Amino acid sequence: MRAGLVQITSGDDPAQNLPVTLGLIRAAAADGADIVLTPEVTNMVSTSRQRQTALLHPEDTDPSLAAFRAEAEALGIWLSIGSLALKTDDPDGRFANRSFLIAPDGTVVARYDKIHMFDVEISDTESYRESAGYRPGDRAVMADTPLGRIGLTICYDLRFPHLYRRLAQAGAQIITVPSAFSPVTGAAHWETLLRARAIETGCFIFAAAQTGQNTEARATYGHSLAVSPWGEVLADGGTGPGITMVDFDLADVDRSRGRIPALGHDRPFEGP
Ligand SMILES: O=C(O)CNC(=O)[C@H](CS)NC(=O)CCC(=O)C(=O)O
């Protein structure tokens, strides 16, 4: 099985981001990908609520989602659209940060709203308040596909290991972590956290990432990563835009869990 990770620098104009993303999806398909994965907020990276309100759509009329569904069907591949920013019926006007798994016939087989919101102050000059603009989800999602059972997560979710354990114990063999990581925390934590989640769960981890200077106010870390269930980095997308291909064998999931069966060794305990 072959996966293609799409690494892009989405800006604040969805109409410009779409053709760039489609071009890389086609390149990965031409290179034999069975599944192509894109980063968090593939359609639009923006820090302006006003601009998002002007340019974003609800799921049922979103032109990016329609184009990705048509492209999956035209190419006959699986598509993991890491996430799209979408309008919702939220009374406070917050958007959804929603991941989609699209089958080769163009149908959406799974959708997941990011649960954990990135509300942090990294330094005096760098802070994020994702929950002001986005409405968090409240359910974990896994999909059974011919490529394996795929658990869906997004970016900051990566720091909540119980979500990953739950997905793995529910049968996930692959977990997606589409991201738009900050450059500072990316350098400090990205690879370590992804490898830890892979080792803890015995799952393949596929993490397509935003990279570079997305807008004047926002930059991202890049380094799209594919990690084996044993914790090896199989592929690293570096810092430029492009595709990173990785071949994987689902049998490695059982091989890894056979060597370290920790996933089945949970025990109840008390305190603190
Ligand atoms: O803002 C948007 O449009 C979409 N959301 C994001 O890009 C989010 C919130 S700012 N980014 C992250 O979760 C990065 C997490 C991270 O960097 C870490 O955990 O260290």
From TrEMBL:
The record's annotation in SUPFAM superfamilies points to: Carbon-nitrogen hydrolase
**InterPro entries per record:** C-N_Hydrolase, C-N_Hydrolase_sf, Nit1/2_C-N_Hydrolase, UPF0012_CS
Record keywords, A-Z: Hydrolase
**Top-level taxon of the source organism:** Bacteria
Any one Gene Ontology MF annotation carried by this entry is:
hydrolase activity, acting on carbon-nitrogen (but not peptide) bonds, in linear amides
Asked whether the UniProt record includes Phosphoprotein among its keywords, one would answer no
Q: Does the keyword Transferase apply?
A: no
Q: Where is the CN hydrolase domain?
A: 1-250
Q: Which PROSITE patterns match?
A: CN_HYDROLASE (PS50263), UPF0012 (PS01227)
The UniProt family comment states:
Belongs to the carbon-nitrogen hydrolase superfamily. NIT1/NIT2 family.
**What is the official name of this protein in its record?**
Carbon-nitrogen hydrolase family protein
